[in-house]
Specification:
heterodimer, A: alpha/beta, TIM Barrel, eight-stranded parallel beta barrel, two-stranded antiparallel ribbon, 10 helices, globular, B: mainly alpha, three-stranded antiparallel β-sheet, 13 helices, 6 strands, 10% strand
């Protein structure tokens, strides 16, 4: 089980500090693709951290929304890592990246059709069967208008979760970025997510597109969490209660202490949202 | 017959790398015309280029960021990653550089890329114990001759005939970036991972021949002959000591069986 506390995306430059950090409830999350190796210091460092802290594996490459079965070799390597590290949670994205034998390092979108839904549910089923555990599925950032969609975004996620038995990983920054691109109301989207499906929450920073500016925000994970995203997060946990919450940072990486300060803010909000804290 | 979803993914994937390739898929054509499509194009290219920059740091430092990213973009369009572990991305980058027109004036660049690649391979290779040099030291030469040395999974080596590639690579990778004076002759490199981290050292032609022979399954006597053939005056005791000290071997095995000794 994931601790109901705040965690941090783990970067190799912070291995030693992460291992030795004694902050209450601290857990870490990594992209398993970066540890699918035969051996060596990178995997050894992660195992050392895993001995001290809970760990979550957050995949970016199962390509669950591709119209193809998940790559069995990739799934095998993920299963081996799950067995080795015994993570508290395994999550993935509602997106595709591997197609016709080539991997594109991004989370690519699909139209929300009944056919796509059936394919995604089947692919999640294959993954969960191989990993022998339910996964959590993350809402990606959207930058494109697909015209009339067969499902609303939350409706699509909920239907996938209902049919596949997966949980949801709600990325509040992605909702914010998507709403900004598509002219939706981020608060309404978040309001619509059933709390009982949410296993984890992600918070991250975004940046303005260099060409289009603030009209096109990019989910770049290269900046602190924005004020508007913190406000959405407070409303979310005020409604559904505390959930394991991750501060993600993948580029323009600051000092470990700076990330821990951001993580502490999430931690304090989580503690304040605990039923006991409310009653007191 | 392709489904609508797979036809969409074919067209989307093509359009990511070639702006005019939305083709006859009207759904994807309606997406590529939106400003947001560039976010996907940029993210895919940035992911590939960042991975190559991380995997080829000595090359990147030699040519500078702008040159490197331009070359990496050309490579990425030709060769997307074949799987998602980007630590392994760029297997063909050295070969690409050897034929890249803009790199013609830098004939040593492909060799430097080759050593960056060997470093990456050594970094993620399987863990294994190191052969204790005392095990060999206790043997008389005639006892040693029929045995085989098992290479450590992280051991990598290469001889470069044309240029001091190892000196250029190691100064670019680990030094302050200045290459300085070079003795322009062939050089070999040995990369090992004796403890946690990858280490490297120069190695002569005899050492390379010895390791090549070990990799081919030769007994120690065969490997020694191979070393002497390429360098008749080679000091074999010093050579084997150097390889043991670097951590190139994980075990010594009897010549007759595959069993580990002791």
């Amino acid at each position: 089980m994931m601790p109901i506390s705040a965690g941090l995306g783990l970067k190799p430059q912070h291995f030693a500090e992460a291992r030795d950090c004694a902050a209450a409830g601290l857990w870490f999350e990594v992209h398993p693709e970066n540890y699918m190796v035969d051996g060596g210091p990178r995997l050894a460092s992660l195992e050392a951290i895993r001995r001290e802290h809970p760990l979550s594996l957050h995949g970016v490459a199962l390509s669950l929304a591709a119209d193809a079965d998940p790559d069995p070799r990739h799934l095998d390597r993920l299963a081996a890592l799950v067995q080795r590290l015994e993570p508290a949670l395994v999550s993935e994205h509602l997106a595709w990246s591997t197609w016709q034998g080539a991997y594109r390092p991004d989370l690519l979108p699909v139209p929300r059709t009944a056919a796509a839904l059936a394919r995604i549910v089947a692919n999640i089923g294959r993954a969960q069967e191989r990993l022998r555990r339910p996964i959590a599925l993350e809402n990606p950032s959207h930058y494109l208008r697909f015209g009339q969609q067969e499902y609303g975004e939350v409706e699509f996620l909920v239907e996938i979760a209902r049919r596949s038995g997966c949980a949801l990983l709600l990325d509040v920054n992605n909702v914010f970025v998507s709403a900004n691109s598509l002219g939706d109301d981020a608060a309404r989207t978040i309001e619509a997510v059933p709390g009982e499906l949410v296993a984890e929450i992600h918070l991250a920073g975004h940046s303005a597109d260099p060409v289009h500016g603030e009209r096109l925000l990019v989910d770049s994970h290269d900046a602190p969490v924005a004020a508007a995203v913190w406000r959405l997060y407070e409303r979310l946990i005020g409604r559904i209660g505390p959930r394991p919450t991750l501060i993600e940072r993948d580029d323009n990486i600051p000092a470990f202490a700076d990330l821990m300060a951001e993580r502490q803010r999430a931690h304090d909000l989580l503690v304040a949202s605990m039923p006991l804290a409310k009653a007191a | 017959m392709a489904t609508r979803l797979s036809a969409y993914q074919d067209a989307f994937a093509r359009a990511l790398l070639a702006p005019d390739a939305a083709g006859d898929d009207p759904q994807v054509a309606a997406l590529t015309s939106q400003p947001g499509f560039a976010v996907y194009r940029n993210t895919v290219m940035k992911g590939c280029i960042d991975a190559l920059a991380a995997n080829y740091p000595a090359v990147a430092r030699l040519v500078g960021d702008e040159w490197f990213r331009a070359a990496a973009a050309v490579f990425a369009r030709e060769s997307l990653p074949s799987h998602p572990t980007l630590l392994d991305y760029g297997e063909g980058f050295a070969g690409f550089l050897s034929a890249f027109p803009r790199a013609l004036e830098l004939p040593y660049l492909a060799g430097v890329a080759r050593l960056d690649r060997l470093w990456s391979e050594a970094h993620v290779a399987a863990d294994a114990p190191l052969l204790d040099p005392a095990l060999l030291a206790a043997l008389a030469p005639r006892e040693m001759a029929p045995l085989r040395l098992r290479l450590h999974p992280a051991a990598r080596w290469q001889w470069f005939d044309e240029a001091p590639i190892y000196s250029i690579w190691s100064r670019s990778r680990d030094g302050d970036g200045t290459i300085g004076e070079l003795d322009w002759r062939g050089e070999g490199a040995l990369l090992t991972r004796p403890f946690a981290d990858v280490r490297h050292r120069p190695i002569g032609r005899a050492g390379v021949a010895f390791l090549d022979a070990c990799a081919d399954g030769e007994r120690i006597e065969g490997a020694a002959l191979a070393a002497l053939e390429i360098e008749p005056g080679a000091d074999l005791a010093a050579l084997v000591h150097q390889l043991l000290d670097a951590g190139a071997f994980s075990a010594v095995e009897s010549g007759a069986h595959e069993e580990s000794c002791p």
